[in-house]
Amino acid sequence: MNRIFSGIQPTGNLHLGNYLGAIRNWVRLQSDYDCIFCMVDMHAITVWQDPKELVSSTREVAAAVLAAGVDPKASIVFVQSQVPGHAQLAWVFNCVARLGWLNRMTQFKDKAGKNRENASVGLFAYPNLMAADILLYKATHVPVGEDQKQHLELSRDIAQKFNNDFGVDLLPIVEPLIFGPATRVMSLRDGTKKMSKSDPSDKSRINMIDDADAIALKIRKAKTDPHLLPETPEGFDGRPEAANLMGIYAALADMAIEDVCARFGGWQFSKFKGELADLAVEKLSLIGTECIRLHNDPGYVDGVLRDGAARASAIAEPILREIYDAVGFLRP
Ligand code: TYM
Asked: What are the residue boundaries of the structural domains of the chain, listed by start?
């Protein structure tokens, strides 16, 4: 059976982009694949995290993943720092990946900004840890949003170079799974910017724990343009807000974007927003309530994560040993 691995940073403010771009697809894949889902706290600390908040948001994000319908019996759900193989393999990959490859990563450039000299070394090496996450389980498929595509290409390059350098056929060349009409959900305040946890404006995103009133209000206030909605996707040219809101509708309703345009083309934004708000509330508010219920039961969530870490380690340890043997590390 093919194996899926995917990860999410436990930094709070999980939003509609995380849900439509990733978590919802995780739920759908778990019946057909052997799935491993990880709260990547070691990735989170590549930028400063308050320690107490990190503990709490790790539980919160795990709760959201479970609330969205990931079944911790069918799939493995765990926290990255509880399985030491991630850090161990990342070191090997730090020695396989080339500086030139990492220099090309657009996410590093975006996150480090102008103050590059002051960015952590971890932020620069982040994609190597991501490759380690996936290859520690020899995962073959990785469901993510569009923004992670470049990192997955790097994982492929690392696997290929490792296999070549050591003359083995050990690491798989992973396939990204980027699907659905919402692979890149944009900010509600600016249709040219990605919806993001780190946007200072809470109005820019729909959080998974927003209640019905907050969801409806944010959609009502979402940025628009002065024209009527387009009747075909060709009409999205130069109209990022229309593309985003209609794309969100298509994803939530499980409809093709063409059908959404056919249905709402020629409508005023204001009337369409009413329909979108009703749909978003219907699809999201139950998940939000379940999220809050689980977050208030930390014993249960911690237990799921502990069990997940044990099962993940059982898969990872023999694979790490194979990799160490290939590298030439003396067995204890
Ligand atoms: P993270 O935590 O930023 O995001 C988690 C998932 O949500 C997707 N996503 C979006 N999809 C659509 N529209 C958006 N606006 C949007 N924002 C986020 C992301 O593509 C991702 O799938 N580096 C990863 C975490 C990671 C990982 C891995 C993923 C670490 N190791 C191994 C896959 C495999 C990240 O920062 O995701």
From this structure: 3-183+298-327, 202-294
**CB-ligand 1 contact for 244 (6 Å cutoff):** no
Catalytic residue among 52, 73, 111, 223: 111
Task: Tell the residue number behind the tokens 């900010």, with chain if given.
Answer: 187
d(CA 200, CA 215): 17
Note if 221 is an active site residue.
Answer: no
**pLDDT tens, position by position, 204-239:** 999 998 999 999 999 999 999 999 999 999 999 999
114 is catalytic: no
What are the φ/ψ torsions at residue 52 (nearest 5 degrees)? -65, -40
Fold assignment, 202-294: Tyrosyl-Transfer RNA Synthetase (1.10.240)
Q: Does the CB atom of residue 176 touch ligand 1 within 6 A?
A: no
Q: Are strands 175-177 and 141-143 parallel, antiparallel or unpaired?
A: parallel
* CATH superfamily assigned to domain 3-183+298-327: HUPs (3.40.50.620)
Nearest-angstrom CA–CA distance, 246 and 255: 10
Q: What is the 144 CA–ligand 1 centroid distance (Å)?
A: 6
Catalytic entry in 52, 114, 197, 203: 197
Q: What pLDDT was estimated at residue 1?
A: 65
Q: Residue 114: pLDDT above 90? A: no
What are the pLDDT digits (tens) for 235-254? 999 999 999 999 999 999 99
- The sign of the dihedral angle between the CA atoms of 308, 314, 315, 319 is positive
How far apart, in whole angstroms, are the C-alpha atoms of residue 258 and residue 181? 11
Query: Which of 13, 128, 129, 148 to probe ligand 1 with, by most ligand atoms within 8 A of CB?
Result: 148
pLDDT, tens digit (0-9, with 9 covering 90-100), for 166-210:
999 999 999 999 987 788 999 999 999 999 988 999 999 999 989
Q: What is the pLDDT of residue 135?
A: 98
pLDDT value of position 172: 97
Give me the DSSP letters along 45-59.
TTS---HHHHHHHHH
